Amino acid sequence: MDQRKVVQPADRTRFDDVREIGVLVASGIGDFVATVPALHALRAAYPHARLVVLGDVWHPDFLTGRPGPWDEAVPVPRNTGIARLDRDPGGRLREFLEAQRGRYDLVVQLHGGGADSNAVVQSLGAPHTVGAWTPGAVELDRCVRYVPGRPEVLRCLEVAELAGARPASGTQGLVPSLVVTDDDLAQAHDAWPDTGPFVLVHPGARDARRCWPVGRFAEVGVRLNQTLGIRMLVVGAETDRALASQLRSRLGPAGADLTGRLPLGGFLGLARRCTLFLGNDSGPRHLAVAAGAPTVGLFLTSNVRTFGPLVGARDRVVESRTVCCPTCGRPEACDHVISWVEDVSVDEVVATCEEVVEDAERLLLVGAVGESEPSSPASASGSAS
Ligand SMILES: [Zn+2]
User: I need a labelling partner for 257 at 20 to 30 A (CA). Which of 6, 45, 65, 154 fits?
Assistant: First the structure.
């Protein structure tokens, strides 16, 4: 008899008796947008379960009432990264976990490698847990090793699949998409009632390495204004104000500044209306993609793999060739506040912008702007459908 060991495939079946699912993704906007295809897969696999996003402080405002695969968003207390159980100032995380304990039948960890977050998932006391695992992390019921540098959208889909939630067929299912509601469009209209064509420009990013010099954005803006006759609307959060006002003053009559004047929903509404979004690899760029805008993003090489587009021509990247700090030469983040995307030329960016705008006009872009998702009361309440 053949004594060779038969390796059984890992279990990827759906769990039974799941009425409430918690999905941990307590981080930034870009990270959340990358989870959306996985959330849709979970919704399709568990159509009658209640799906709760265990998110950051900004999630409840943004997701409540927005049609999507979620039913509710709950903020998880955190400082930097997810709070660790053994470093939990004021005990806010423990208090939160105590209150939520026993609520979920399944918890899905889409937060990251699991070094800290898997212990948080385990404390929720769910009968079923799935997620990524990194050496030293708590093991969940079903885990997949966290391999750094993989595309985030696919990584999240792999984790969802551990719970029997398979991705929808079709390559467009790999593009994160958010419904733009009538409220979003109304907020956008209040902030910018002008009906002429415009380019949305976001010159900021949390990480200085990802910021293209503001003078370059201004050069692109002036040139696009000359060739395409399009105005530049500068957008961003309060933290982007200094950069935004520099850009606004260099653009002259070609520009306007809406920095700090748009809630996230209003930004989605404006992104739906824009001819093009241009910006650094940051939250607004990910939201613009999800709203269906043609985008051109300035990217670090390493981030093209993790957060760059997977399919389609609507979402374009101009990639830096710099792979280490221009000051100290270290290949990872250091203390120097310096751009790693400065080597990207104005000509490259202008050419890519013009190509995307031209493609949109020739309808070469799948899911191009103008395609509107319904936001009727029926769809707004139909998250379990
Ligand atoms: Zn350095």
Answer: 65
pLDDT digits (tens, 9 = 90+) for 47-64: 999 999 999 999 999 999
Domains of the chain are 20-169 (3.40.50.2000), 182-361 (3.40.50.2000)
Between the CA of 324 and the centroid of ligand 1 the distance, in Å, is 8
Measure 328 CA to ligand 1 centroid, in angstroms.
Answer: 4
pLDDT digits (tens, 9 = 90+) for 169-205: 789 899 999 999 999 999 999 999 999 999 999 999 8
Distance 336 CA to ligand 1 centre (A): 5
Output the CA 207–ligand 1 centroid distance in Å: 13
Per the CB < 8 A criterion, the answer to whether 91 and 109 are in contact is: no
CA 210 to centroid of ligand 1, rounded, Å: 14
Q: Give per-residue pLDDT as tens, 1-32.
A: 556 777 777 789 999 999 999 999 998 999 99
Q: How far is the CA of 176 from the centre of ligand 1 (A)?
A: 33
Alpha helices in 192-230 (DSSP H): 214-228
How many A from CA of 338 to the centre of ligand 1?
8
User: Across the beta sheet with 50-55, what order do the strands follow?
Assistant: 72-75, 50-55, 20-24, 106-109, 128-133, 142-145
In the chain, % helix, strand, coil (3-state, to 5) comes to: 40, 15, 45
